[in-house]
Amino acid sequence: DYDAQDLIEFEETILQGVGYDKDGKVSRKELTMILLALAKMPPDDEQ
């Protein structure tokens, strides 16, 4: 379960990690990078 604060922190983390152009938005290319990185991560129960 996520609350509003969790979502804000998640958004900030994403923008810090991939927001190369610092426009405050996630571009299609940046979203692709995020999804590819998440696809390579093992599920939480396997870590």
Automatic annotation (TrEMBL):
<protein>
    <recommendedName>
        <fullName>EF-hand domain-containing protein</fullName>
    </recommendedName>
</protein>
